[in-house]
Amino acid sequence: MQPVICFYENKKFIHSTDYQLISCSDEHDALFFLQQIEKDHAAKMKVVKINFAALEAPLSNDNRKTYVKTPKAQVFILNSYELVTQKDLENFYPEKMTSRPAYYPTVRENVFLENVQSIKEDICHGRFYQMNYTAALEAEAPERHSLLNSFVHVSDVGGDYRAYLPLGPEEAIHCLSPELFLKKSGPKVLTQPIKGTLLSGRALPELQNSRKENAELSMIVDLLRNDLNTLSCGTYNDSSRVNFHRQIMDLKYTAHTYSEVEINTSKKFSEIIAQTFPGGSISGCPKKESLKKIAEIENYHRDFYTGSIGWWKGDDFCLNIAIRSSYQKKRQLYYFTGCGIVFDSEPRREWHEFLTKCSFLNLFLEYTPIVDTLAFSDGISYLPEHIERTFLAFRDQMVQIDMYQVQNLYQKIEQELSEKIKTADTHKVRVIFNKDLTYRLEITPLEKKSDAVVLQLMAFDKFLPQFKTIERSTWDNILKNKSAEADDVLVVNTQGHVVEASIYSVFYKKGDEFFTPPISDGGIHSVYRAHHVKKSSITLDDRTFKLSERSLPTSELESVELYVANSVRGLKKASLLF
């Protein structure tokens, strides 16, 4: 049997291969299910999983995606188990991870920013004060990829509340949570909410002195104090208290601030869950209204993510907040992360925090050199846009770099090109950036090509990488399937909207206006596109047209003038290969 592994105390893990898995189906009440477990298996050691929405009634007309579908609550009844160390686990399962899945967010950056802004608007209108916004990342598992092996051999980046749950022959959950939801020992119940994130190694006072992070954690501490106060009872007529507030938790790859709240109670597991679940730190404040907004704005069901996983024996238990978690079913992999939004949240900073929290995924990926292709003639064309895109591409790979460093790099590159290129002719330059910020240049005269481009329509149902500067293989694989008569492909998404060409961004003219598909349709960071979208205009044959973003359904292709463009070749007329 696949093992169940769950955090315990004193850096030990519960390890069992002798267990019975009991699940609560969608038709049954999760609290009643837990009460039955409480009644029938009180003395047994149990490992429990409770999904984020386990206590909520299903919504009607719910169009959210279901990346993961597991029973709302599950309990592993352990017939036997042992307490083991991290070293023991490594000896039990010595095969280290050799495969490196590449994860991509299932939400585009601009959609993420728009959703953060929507949450902020609701905060301004008084709907709630804070909300936790999350998204999924997806990957295809390489051959022989094992969540068990990755769980065992990533201890350097895992939190104290790690767990591995086998749910089927080719299905498992891998949780590296650093956050304690609830721990009950005798009458004492503790919770330790986490808020605020910084890449570890940077100045920790920046995190500790942040007014935004202070406000966010303070709100959640207040909410959790109220949740715990509902556990007060006759035996312990107690009120919650804050043991400490905003201490630093350094996880090596990230650092956070966290607090601890405590109360005494004689209530049992199912009663405590009924009063406190799900955790306030991953829902929002007030909890009820933030849960409604989560269902409105997140495009997927969280399932087990941000629910709880932990152990339970007698009246004592310890549950994590199931964050920093992966799910595998056959070859499909998902990872989940998110961030808390308050009134003074900056959307781009929240996107950066979102990426930071999943940065450890890239610790197992080889750095992919960033390749920026540009035109040079007495200077670099579209220089500000090249600088911005390269900065974003570095950040996408979790390289700690500031914008001014990228600006200095391009100043150096421009000076070097001026010294090497002695003619006034335009040259095509490929700049290959290494992780240590060194680079090399490939310089060739710009060849004259046809002013017209023939495109072949091609449907694509996968998530396209955000940067061609990093990930070309996806596009190269698409191009392999094109006809020899076509110069490039015109990718169409699952909604039937035009997205992008392999080499060019897409534009089209309708009447006296130009349009370009919005990035939310699946497009990528493009220098030429970014420059002209900022200007809200584009020039063709010495005439300037208004430019705006608008989706291009394939049904409209015959009624528009189609164009493609990039920063090296400029704007070109395009036609379709039928």
Structure, described:
Helix 1 runs antiparallel to helix 7 and helix 3 (109-124) packs across helix 9. Helices cover 25% and strands 34% of the residues. The radius of gyration is 27 Å and the shape is elongated. The mean pLDDT is 89. A hairpin with a 3-residue loop joins strand 29 and strand 30 (570-576). The chain folds into three domains: 4-363, 4-Layer Sandwich (Anthranilate synthase), CATH 3.60.120; 370-445; 452-576, D-amino Acid Aminotransferase, subunit A, domain 2 (D-amino Acid Aminotransferase, Chain A, domain 2, Alpha-Beta Barrel), CATH 3.20.10.10. It has 578 residues and is α+β, with helices and mostly antiparallel strands. 42% of the residues are buried. The chain has an 18-stranded antiparallel sheet that branches. It has a nine-stranded mixed sheet with strand order 24-23-22-30-29-25-26-28-27, with helices on one face. The protein has a three-stranded antiparallel sheet with strand order 19-20-21.
The total domain count is 3
The CATH architecture designation of the largest domain is: 4-Layer Sandwich
The helix content, as a percent range, equals 10-25%
Provide the CATH topology of the largest domain: Anthranilate synthase
In CATH terms, the superfamily of the largest domain is: Anthranilate synthase
Give the overall shape, derived from the CA principal axes.
elongated
Summarize the structure.
The chain is of the alpha+beta class and 578 residues long.
Break the fold down into its secondary structure elements and pairings.
Blueprint: E1 4-7, E2 13-24, H1 30-40, E3 46-50, E4 73-84, H2 86-92, E5 104-105, H3 109-124, E6 130-140, H4 147-152, E7 161-168, E8 171-177, E9 180-185, E10 188-192, E11 194-199, H5 204-208, H6 211-229, E12 241-250, E13 254-264, H7 269-276, E14 284-285, H8 287-297, E15 308-313, E16 316-320, E17 325-329, E18 332-341, H9 347-357, E19 370-376, H10 383-396, H11 403-420, E20 427-433, E21 439-445, E22 452-459, H12 473-479, E23 488-492, E24 498-501, E25 505-510, E26 513-516, H13 527-535, E27 537-540, E28 543-549, E29 561-566, E30 570-576
Parallel strand pairs: 22-23, 22-30, 26-28
Antiparallel strand pairs: 1-2, 1-7, 2-4, 3-4, 3-15, 5-6, 6-14, 6-18, 7-8, 8-17, 9-10, 9-16, 10-13, 11-13, 12-13, 15-16, 17-18, 19-20, 20-21, 23-24, 25-26, 25-29, 27-28, 29-30
